Amino acid sequence: MRLKDKKVIALLEEDFEDLELWYPVLRLREEGAIVDLVAKEAKKKYFGKYGVPAESDYSFSEIDVNDYDAILVPGGWAPDKLRRYREVLDMVRSMNEQQKPIGQICHAGWVLISAGILRGKKVTSTPGIKDDMTNAGSLWFDEAVVTDGHIVSSRRPPDLPPYVKAFADLLAAN
Question: Which terminus has fewer CB within 10 Å in the chain: N or C?
Fold first, then answer.
């Protein structure tokens, strides 16, 4: 269990991409990580784009980001909502300042854009937000997974296996 004692925040909001939330959460838990689903409201059921539910463990205000080793931002339409919360942007900025692993897939790049942490970073995302990513100053690549320092990015659900492996490898090394 190479991720034993590692704590990860998985951000949660309505209309997350079901696989982009659950695949990383389950894989990291299989490797021993504690993955907390964190949302605006604690103990609330949120639903993915395809109806898969996820109940939040904690609210943004109930956690201390310094107690965690990494953060995951799922795709779907949730990132457009997540980036509107000051607490989310503060969490992402804190993880960035501490060089802790940040995982983002598909539209999750919107959250990193709003946090202002992509200038000069090599990333990928769904091609639909390529312009947003490059306008934020990042260098965009059409690849399954791109790792630049502590930021691991990916395009879409078919890329989940290499994305989660890269994220888990980075988390294990930190």
Answer: N
Which pairs with CB-CB distance under 8 Å and at least 24 residues apart come from 171-174? 171/3, 171/6, 171/8, 171/28, 171/33, 171/69, 171/70, 171/101, 172/2, 172/3, 172/6, 172/31, 174/69, 174/70, 174/100, 174/101, 174/150
Q: How far apart are CA 149 and CA 100, in angstroms?
A: 9
Q: What is the pLDDT of residue 38?
A: 98
Integer Cα distance of 81 and 24 in angstroms: 20
Cβ–Cβ < 8 Å for 107, 125: yes
Query: Model pTM?
Result: 0.98
Q: In b/e form, how buried is each residue of 105-134, taking b as 16+ CB within 10 angstroms?
A: bbbbbbbbbbbebbeebbbbbbeebbebbe
**Residue 58 gets which letter from DSSP?**
E
All residue ranges of the chain with pLDDT < 70 are none
**Residues annotated as catalytic (active site), given as ranges:** 107
Q: At 153, phi and psi to the nearest 5? A: -125, 155
Give the pLDDT of residue 132: 98
**Which residues does 88 contact at the CB level (< 8 Å), separation at least 6?**
11, 60, 82, 111
